[in-house]
Design a protein that fits this description.
The protein is α+β, with helices and mostly antiparallel strands. 54% of the residues lie in helices and 12% in strands. It contains one helix and four strands, in the order H-E-E-E-E. A hairpin with a 4-residue loop joins strand 3 and strand 4.
């Protein structure tokens, strides 16, 4: 009986550790994927990333979602 209780405790600890690792890893992976997507959109617009913004070669800010020039007032345009 003691062995069964010990195995149940070990299973519980393992499940809790897997949950804790997933709680940390999933947001990191989502942020990395979002940044990669935004960078790819910027490059497809003919720009590059400069100081968290997508800019063209004259350093004019581009909205990577629409490939249009903008004044850069929106926080969701940040690449990372």
């Amino acid at each position: 009986m003691k062995e069964a209780a010990g195995e149940a405790n070990m299973t519980t600890i393992t499940i809790m550790l897997i949950g804790a690792i997933a709680a940390v890893a999933i947001p990191m992976i989502n942020r990395t994927m979002s940044t990669a997507r935004k960078r790819a959109q910027c490059i497809s617009c003919g720009g590059y990333v400069l100081d968290r913004y997508c800019v063209d070669f004259s350093d004019t800010i581009i909205d990577p979602r629409t490939c249009e020039y903008t004044n850069g007032e929106y926080d969701d345009m940040f690449i990372y």
